[in-house]
Write a structure and sequence with these properties.
Radius of gyration: 17 Å
CATH superfamily: START domain
Largest sheet: 10 strands, mixed
Structural class: alpha+beta
Number of domains: 1
Strand content: 35-45%
CATH architecture: 2-Layer Sandwich
């Protein structure tokens, strides 16, 4: 009974998340390997939310472990200049980070990462969201106005997984959306490709 109740609670939580509503998306590009990149406007934000979707042969837990485990190499590591864990529990981390993203000067942010695993292993959800308030360090770097997104790995019941990555980011500094749109799309695709390549 506890197993069923836990799964029901998780499904309700995930179903209630607005980030996974499906309204307003429009396709912006297709990539080799079946990756579909979509975007939609976000109320009160000059930058679009991005979604990359693809069906892959790896299990949800294997894909999620790649996302949850930090490495010293790879797409994200090449941008990270400094990272400091402010708090950590089994399924939650709060992290201060300074990055050098494409096209712009270095940025800083505090981000909370959370992970939820369905008891039956068929669904793993990892979310991340910028945390407002005082920064732990005062560096010469622009504070990111918004970072919010999710990784969702859900078994399709046929020995494959639907990978769904979503992110909206306001890099701060008043950059025009058209200047960073392609770079943000390229980065989203690179993140997804890396996860697919590393999952076992």
């Amino acid at each position: 009974m506890m197993r069923a109740n836990s799964l029901n609670v998780l499904v309700l939580l995930l179903g209630a998340l607005p980030a996974f509503a499906d309204e307003g998306w429009h396709e912006v590009r297709r990539e080799t390997g079946g990756l579909v990149v979509e975007a939609r406007p976000v109320a009160g934000c000059a930058y679009e939310e991005l979604r990359v979707r693809v069906r892959v042969p790896q299990r949800p837990a294997a894909l999620a472990e790649v996302v949850w485990t930090w490495r010293d190499d790879g797409v994200e590591a090449r941008m990270v200049e400094r990272r400091k864990v402010l708090s950590e529990r089994a399924n939650e981390r709060v992290v201060y980070q300074v990055v050098r993203p494409p096209l712009v000067s270095r940025r800083q942010s505090v981000v909370r990462f959370t992970r939820e695993d369905a008891p039956d292993g068929r669904l793993v959800h990892i979310s991340f969201d910028s945390v407002p308030g005082e920064l732990p360090e005062h560096l010469d770097a622009v504070r990111v106005g918004l970072i919010r997104g999710d990784w969702r790995f859900e078994s399709d019941g046929d020995h494959a997984t639907w990978l769904d990555y979503r992110c909206v980011s306001d890099p701060g500094g008043g950059l025009p959306a058209w200047l960073v749109a392609n770079a943000q799309q390229d980065l989203a695709v690179a993140f997804v490709r890396e996860v697919m390549a590393l999952a076992r």
